[in-house]
Structures are given as C-alpha cells and as structure tokens.
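ARCHIVE CARD
Drawer: 12
Card no.: 0347
Subject: one protein chain, sequence and derived structure
Cross-reference: see card 0346
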Amino acid sequence: MELYLFRHGISVDRGTPGYKLDSERPLTPKGEQKIWSISDGLLSQGVSFDLILTSPYIRAQKTAEILAKVFMAEKKVKHSTNLAPAADPEELVAEINLVYAGAKQIVLVGHEPFLSDLASTLLTGDADLSMTIKKGGICKLTVAGLRYGRCAKLEWLLAPRQLKKLG
C-alpha cells in the first residue's frame, strides 16, 4: 500500500472574524492557488490514487476537492472524522483496514501535528520522530501491512515549493 499524507493548504488565521470554529476556517485564495499548482506537480509525476480520504474540516475538504479535480477523481473522495486534528490515529488505521482494505494508493488529507505524528508512528513505532509536513506538503510512505506501529518505509517528503516546481 502507498500512503500519501497531504497537509491542507494555507488557511485563514485562527480568530479571523466570521469563523467561530476552527473547523470552519477555509483556504485563503493564495492557499487554493498553491494547492492547484501542487496537485499539478503530483499529476506530472504519474502519481495516482484509489482513495482520497479527508478530514471533515473545510480547509482539508477544499484541498482534497482541488486534488480530486486535477486527478479527475471526484468520486474517490471520502470524509473521515478520524482525520480531524484531535482524532485518534489508531482509529484511523483501524478504519482504513476495515472500510478501505482494498485500496492500494490512499491520500490522507489532514492537519499538523496529526499527520507527522501518524508518519512517525508508522515509521518508528512512536510519535517521537521530529518532522513537520508544511502546509501543502506531502509525504509518501509504503506499507506492506498497515497497522498502528512500525510498519512503513519513507519514500519521500516534499515541501510545497518542491511540488510546485514539478508541475
């Protein structure tokens, strides 16, 4: 299985008037533009997906929507509360194994530090690996058998500026 951990794009700041809940904060226009460029960069590299699983937060949903449009994969987008910032990553792993067991290439669109903690746990067995996935950044892991613990190999970790240059 290939797991792509994709952090949402640049969003409006916390405390911005009109967005009482963190979950309501959308991408900024610049954030949307960058996600389009990043998605084009991924497409140019021949990346493909069986499933795009996104956090229910607006900024992650929009990131997933843009990615799906670029890849003409709108029907492959699903939402998971297990990708929300305060979710339990162990429950996300269980959900993937139970509901999406047939998927071989999965994009998880979410938030920090959730995504880097998940990557750390899958790579080393605990969340102590110091890494950060920047807004619009993506990490590719390969997994022979997905479980909550050490089971993955890091293929690459790319920053947004690197992805934009690929397009």
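Annotation on reverse: The mean pLDDT is 95. The helical segments are 29-44, 58-70, 89-99, 114-124, 160-166.
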